[in-house]
Design brief:
The chain has about 160 residues and is mostly helical. The protein has one domain: Ferritin (Up-down Bundle). The protein has five helices and no strands. Bound molecules: fe (ii) ion. The site of fe (ii) ion has 2 residues, from loops.
């Protein structure tokens, strides 16, 4: 941990940095998964879904940035390489060899839902050990992920 004039205790800051890095790994993985869907989706609804996935990927990239910079603000180091993301991401592997829009919509829906669930746990976890601001960062991202999830899953057959 770096020196900082932030008066939050080092113990709390270190705990938050660990939770942040776990979610940084997952968000980097999620970004790549959504890009995988963006590149490979096919079907009559191609352009709508292809463009939607690109917007979702952009939003997820912003979440990575917010998470990583919160770790930095707490005096921690962001661990945001692809290699670390592969080791630490808690998302399921994205299926290869799929092309139908329904399959990619289902895959991205599942990945967003898994990430969202963990974010909600992180909101509670960081609040419980005394870092209300990191909890707020997770709340903001969780709200964003819920919106992305809505945009994606609304393409499923009702
Ligand atoms: Fe593209």
């Amino acid at each position: 941990m770096h020196q900082t004039a932030n008066t939050l205790s080092k113990n709390i800051r270190a705990k938050s940095v660990a939770v942040l890095n776990r979610h940084l790994a997952a968000s980097i993985d999620l970004h790549a998964q959504v890009k995988q869907a963006h590149w490979n989706v096919r079907g009559p609804t191609f352009i709508a879904i292809h463009e939607l996935f690109d917007k979702v990927a952009d939003a997820v990239e912003e979440y990575s940035d917010t998470i990583a910079e919160r770790a930095g603000a707490l005096g921690g180091a962001a661990e945001g390489t692809i290699q670390i993301a592969v080791e630490h991401s808690f998302l399921h592997r994205y299926k290869l060899g799929i092309d139908a829009a329904e399959a990619h919509v289902a895959g991205v829906t599942a990945a967003l839902a898994t990430f969202g669930e963990s974010l909600r746990n992180a909101i509670d976890e960081t609040a419980a050990f005394g870092d209300a601001d990191t909890s707020d960062v997770f709340t903001e991202i969780s709200r964003g992920v819920d919106q992305q999830l809505w945009l994606v899953e609304s393409h499923r057959q009702p």
